[in-house]
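Quick one:
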Amino acid sequence: MRLRHFNQKEFTCNCGCGTMDMDITFLQNLDNARELAGIPFKITSGRRCKDHNRNIGGVEDSDHLYGVASDIEVYGESGRNRYLIVSSLILAGFDRIGVYKEFIHAGMSSSNTDNSPDVMWLES
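Output:
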């Protein structure tokens, strides 16, 4: 599959294990969100293996484990960029969004998890 704005290797597990299988619909929607936002998206965390997810304190049933989540760095004029990222994710069909100080979690509900759709959470 060819993406306009991303290389699939950007979504490889950060532990070095090589896990990188992402959901195709997720990748297409993220590529669309990037187009809508009109700013670059830097992926800081994509697919995670179970060991890496546990080691970094990820939740047990994380969307990252199923290839339906990525974290996008917030940089520059963070208020404006945060708005552009979140609004483009919603328009592109993402239904699980976490807003943190330094990144935005972009997730999609999946038949592989019991994670609720249509949720947004803020860093506490």
